Amino acid sequence: MTRRRLGFWRRFAVAVVKPVLTVWTRRDWRGMEHVPPSGGVIIVPNHLSHFDPLVSAHFIYDSGRWPSYLGKASVFKVPVIGKILLKCQQIPVERGTVDAARSLEALDRAVRSGAAVVIYPEGTTTREPELWPMRGKTGAARLALATGAPVVPVVMWGPQRIFDPRTKKVSLRPRTPVTVVAGPPVDLSRWTGAAPSKAVLDEMTDAIMLRLRDMLAEIRGGTPPPIWSAQPNRRTEDRA
User: Model's pTM, two decimal places?
Assistant: First the structure.
């Protein structure tokens, strides 16, 4: 990823953010080879902390890709800030409105144009008390089914040491350890060409979340809880 290809605004964002993160964190980056060097890709991280996007963006950038995150459409309407976000190839998303379908269309276009789109499948920071992944939403699965793009799982552990959503405390301590690991694309081939029914999207989402859960267990240790409770329209076995 050359400076020339980045353009002014993305170079500006890197120049402002990356030096701060380099001092603030001590990084253990693994699995960068699983982030494809080009072409549309859907990157699905676990969500521990509001500091996650900066850490995952640093990792994805160091992997050679420019991350395109989803942001509330209202933020893009803020003077100056909205323009910078658009120039940095971030994607406005309408939530809970009749325009939500247009947001999916925007994501579809971004992936098909070759972007590295980052979707947090949990939709928000996890509510699990020990910060394990929780039940996911179906947006990433729906986009994968529509585009056929690879879904690359990324897990992290350590951003909660900088901002812990449970206590709302921020640590300014330099060189806080953070670990980020990317894995091979989630195998969703069994659903190729399937209609996007609720059952199909739920099963695809389960496959994504279980991969994230198991990868996270490898780097933090411990025994994770099930990602969902038994429900009639959901697989109830905990596929370890």
Answer: 0.90
